Amino acid sequence: MKLEELSVTEKAAMLSGGSEWDSRGNERAGIPSFVMSDGPHGVRRQLGAGDHLGIGASKPATCFPTAGTVANSWDPALAEKMGEALGREAHDLGVNVLLGPGMNIKRNPLCGRNFEYYSEDPQVAGRMAAGLVKGIQSNGVASCPKHFAVNSQELRRQASNSVVDERTLRELYLTGFEIMVREARPWAIMTSYNQINGTYAHENKHLLTEILRQEWGFDGTVISDWGGSDSAVAAVKAGGSLEMPSPGYTSVRELVGAVQAGTLAEADINVRAGEVAKLAERTHFEGVGRDDLMADDVAKDHHNIARHVAENTSVLLKNGSSDGKIAPVLPLKAGTRVAVVGDMAETARYQGSGSSKVNATDEENLLDQLKKIDGVEVTGYQQGYERHGGKNNVLVEDAVALAAADTTDVVVAVVGLDERSESEGLDRSTMAIPEGQNDLVKALAATGKPVVVVLVAGSPVELPWFDDVSALLYIGLSGQAGASATARVLTGAVNPSGHLAETWPLKYEDVPSSGWYPAIGRDAIYREGPFVGYRYYETAGVPVRFPFGYGLSYSEFTYYGLTSDEKGITFTVTNDSDIAGATVAQMYVRGPVGGAMRPDRELKGFKKVFLGAHETKTVTIPFDRYTFRHYDVVPGTWKTETGEREILVGDSVENLPLSTTQMVQGDIDLCPPNPVLGHYLKGQVKDVTDNEMTALFGHGVIAPGKTVVFGENDPISSWKDSRGFVARTVAKVLANKEAKVRQKTGQPDLNILFILNMPPRAMCKMTQGMIDSAMVQAVVKIANGHTFRGAGSFIAGYFRNISANKRVAKELENK
């Protein structure tokens, strides 16, 4: 039987999940269901009914480094190798669709899920994601990149409206997705929770049809984030294929009712059902069931791959000082006596919290791994700090005593962010690491012994002790084999080659969006426009701790001989040292003088270059469709200005020793910027006026005031301001309970956080059909203080909903 021959009810049923992780198939049409699973850096194949927050138990799988760490490799081929291993594990564990990678632009360093995202730059995000997608799909498993699009904060994540001007949207927030879609051809993509300029992502026709499908040529399935669908009818019209997890039959009823009322064409349902069927066909395989576990030999091999990835992502941020006052201490010389300090040296933190949390097949810690290294003597260990607590002078004193001992040559201190600092569901409150850890590092440095800091964090932190330590190695969240990889870097078995994929500001106040992030109301206004990360710091002349693209090595490299033509650039790189190593060659472009408003420079290409001792290589970086274009809002198309571009090449956005010019023949003349843009023209986004914002956005932008009347899209956390005692109490009790759990366990309570961020309309999507849209409106009445009226409507709606769902279920059973 052909798909089109199924009843409207049967086809509508295929457009929503059958359970937490399974789609609905159709036996009559021979369409199997398929299994989805979280998997940005490890397959989280849950046992039993499962949940979407990483709380329930899951099958053992390899925990690879997180995306924010993998991006520091600047090596799409490495991401592809990791993707191949991820896809193999997904297949072996009975998963058809792996939900990842996460590839949103890092707008602000405090975003709680930054560790899951690649970069502040779309070139890095897009090309690294393309590598991972290719690797995953080489196994016949679909990759489902996320969160499409403009998802930049966790606060109110299901009830936030990202207000962004069209040019910034296209050039910064969508270009990474475009690169990934065009290069890797993913079979699925996941929409974000938030609205984009007033329309939810999963029902945004401009995003899903006009851009994703028509412009980029995407031919796959668009899946909602879990509970991220609003109107099933609007989603089908706009290009949303499948809403997850399972709204029961409520969405089926809405779709069938819309077809019967003539407000939705059956042809639209046919198209969406065809997309779901195509994904089922692409990913179907036999012989793998829910109880299958990964083979031991595969687990061992993949642990080694995870180590290889971690080795190539470590970023050496300091090794001695440029003035010679602090001598290089890394790599540790043979015979070095090492004191190891830090709770995270003994109990490793190697991943974030939330839906990406993996039940690792193996675990390592740096203390044990250093003890295994020949030629390095570990003379002792001290905890140094309370992992989740404040100051502990006794622990600091014990660590200082070990560091000061005559038996200690070098101190290796492992510090960073704890488990409650970086998680899905909440944003960080500060860029600082715990005060007790800062005090520890300062005290260790005061002993006069060389201090090597190993920094564990998924995103930038402030470093008040940076000038006092001898070396700093940033390992990010390095996965289950990160400890052995770190030991090999510290001792010189591996030459560090990572470069930062995001800028590290000196302090949080320097961040362009620090004054309005996260947005606490309905609208998150992206008033900084395109000036995010290095685009801001380089344009506005703001000094930083580490520039975008920065990373040191045990080798020394020389760049020279840059030439360009209409196809691209060519230059030469030489390794001037006796040590094999790798550098990341980066190409930046500066727009034509007198042309459209742009940041001072933008990354337009890069290449990881591996060189043996004293080896020389010629490097070519081609120009492509992204190199010289800009988005022209008035005609709504991409344009290239005719004019001279400056091409700059080096190993970070601030170290660009090579430059040349290239005349570009475009399709339009120079487009002088609107002078009304004022402060934007120099990147001074913290000083922009309302008139300048109007010029950027093309319309007035005013942040809404405090919510007075609550709707179905306002999160439960906002009920704390409700006039109704019951609603106000619910919000406050939940918030207080989550805070107590986090304080007691050191881990965020993801269930409570999800509920607090959840708007009532999501209840219709997350309860297996127990709540429908009419019952949601009853909840909204309670939120607005009409407790008894709302409760009565809810109870009456409950019984009506049960009866309606039974009728749909009976109809499907009789087919």
Tell me what you see in this structure.
The structure is a single chain. By secondary structure, the chain is of the alpha/beta class. The chain has 5 domains: 3-283, Glycoside hydrolase, family 3, N-terminal domain (TIM Barrel, Alpha-Beta Barrel), CATH 3.20.20.300; 308-503, Rossmann fold (3-Layer(aba) Sandwich), CATH 3.40.50.1700; 504-552 and 673-705, no CATH class; 555-671, Immunoglobulins (Immunoglobulin-like, Sandwich), CATH 2.60.40.10; 716-813, no CATH class. The chain is built from 23 helices and 26 strands. The strands form 8 sheets. It has a 6-stranded mixed β-sheet. It has a 4-stranded mixed β-sheet with strand order 7-6-4-16, with no helix packed on it. Strands 21-20-25-26 form a 4-stranded antiparallel β-sheet, with no helix packed on it. Helix 14 (393-404) runs parallel beside helix 15. The model has no long low-confidence stretch (mean pLDDT 93).
Structural domain tally:
5
CATH class of the largest domain: Alpha Beta
The largest β sheet comes out as:
6 strands, mixed
Helix content estimate: 25-40%
**N-to-C span:** 12 Å
- What would you give as the CATH superfamily of the largest domain? Glycoside hydrolase, family 3, N-terminal domain
What is the third-level CATH name, the topology of the largest domain?
A: TIM Barrel
* CATH level-two architecture of the largest domain: Alpha-Beta Barrel
Number of strands: 26
Outline the low-pLDDT stretches: none
Radius of gyration: 27 Å
Approximately what portion of the residues adopt beta-strand conformation? Answer: 15-25%
